Automatic annotation (TrEMBL):
<comment type="similarity">
    <text>Belongs to the aldo/keto reductase family.</text>
</comment>
<dbReference type="InterPro" id="IPR020471">
    <property type="entry name" value="AKR"/>
</dbReference>
<keyword id="KW-0521">NADP</keyword>
<protein>
    <submittedName>
        <fullName>Aldo/keto reductase</fullName>
    </submittedName>
</protein>
<dbReference type="InterPro" id="IPR036812">
    <property type="entry name" value="NAD(P)_OxRdtase_dom_sf"/>
</dbReference>
<dbReference type="Pfam" id="PF00248">
    <property type="entry name" value="Aldo_ket_red"/>
</dbReference>
<dbReference type="InterPro" id="IPR018170">
    <property type="entry name" value="Aldo/ket_reductase_CS"/>
</dbReference>
<feature type="domain" description="NADP-dependent oxidoreductase">
    <location>
        <begin position="29"/>
        <end position="262"/>
    </location>
</feature>
<keyword id="KW-0560">Oxidoreductase</keyword>
<dbReference type="InterPro" id="IPR023210">
    <property type="entry name" value="NADP_OxRdtase_dom"/>
</dbReference>
């Protein structure tokens, strides 16, 4: 039952991840990043999603330390970047991320993109750091079904989660169904399509009906599709708005209307060409 920002999704390894987290992509100003993360934690967020590529792991670590919440009650995710893929390079990159975050372990570590001829070796490195207890869960990001099938054919462990571009213009139903069949959680990056749908009349009509914003309607649509979300914002009012999703429910009709906005349109890169 989704009640608040601490409501969690249970991954196939039994670990729990909050349904709603704060994404920190493109948060480049260190002070602003620290402040945004601390604000989110104070407001009730427990999950923070960063990556070595974002170059703000130090700020995330600092905010976590300065917050009033114990490390064990936070869920911290980072990712290995494309140029660091391969077995040895990944082990080194992970060590670097831990050092920057100034943490003893991570809750989740992901392969950022499926780099051809590299991601299987990278995955073996993730399996190792998981076996060593340095990360509690391991997963992937931007993997299509064929990448997942390829990985699963040759791995000891299954990813707990696949973080992908997902929003009403790119509903990824086939991929979501496949992940569900494999017991792999789906997490949406860019859950509100970088704000490109906020003037969509139908979303605003649904929003008005519920006394909410179009962004909140989209985020609630994800949650009711059992998708984990990491909306990003540095603005206090937006961080709060994005977390205020638990006092309304979309009807089946609302959900169907939103599903119909799909155009298989990506605003980010295509994993096959990246």
């Amino acid at each position: 039952m989704l009640k608040n920002l601490q409501s969690t999704f249970t991954l196939h390894n039994g670990k729990e991840i909050p349904y709603v987290g704060l994404g920190v992509y493109k948060m480049e100003n260190p002070e602003e990043t620290v402040q945004s993360v601390k604000t989110a934690i104070e407001y009730g967020y427990r999950s923070i999603d960063t990556a070595s590529f974002y170059q703000n792991e130090e700020s995330v670590g600092k905010a976590a330390k300065e917050s009033s919440i114990a490390r064990k009650d936070l869920f911290i995710t980072s990712k290995v970047w494309n140029t660091d893929q391969g077995y040895d390079a990944t082990l080194k990159a992970f060590e670097e991320s831990l050092k920057k975050l100034d943490m003893e372990y991570l809750d989740l570590y992901l392969i950022h993109w499926p780099v051809k001829d590299k991601y299987k070796e990278t995955w073996k490195a993730l399996e190792r750091i998981h076996d060593e207890g340095l990360v509690k869960s391991i997963g992937v990001s931007n993997f299509k079904q064929h990448h997942l099938e390829d990985l699963l054919s040759d791995s000891n462990e299954k990813p707990v989660l696949n973080q992908v571009e997902l929003h009403p213009r790119l509903t990824q139903e086939g991929l979501r169904d496949y992940c569900t069949s494999q017991n792999i959680a789906v997490e949406a990056w860019s859950p509100i399509a970088r704000g490109k749908l906020l003037n969509e009349p139908m979303l605003n009509h649904i929003a008005a009906k519920h006394g909410k914003t179009a962004a909140q309607v989209i985020l609630r649509w994800h949650l009711q599709n059992n998708v984990i979300i990491i909306p990003k914002s540095v603005h206090v009012n937006r961080i709060k708005e994005n977390g205020n999703l638990f006092d309304f429910e979309l009807s089946l009709e609302d959900m169907n209307h939103i599903n119909q906005l799909n155009m298989n349109e990506r605003f980010g890169a295509n994993p096959d060409d990246f």
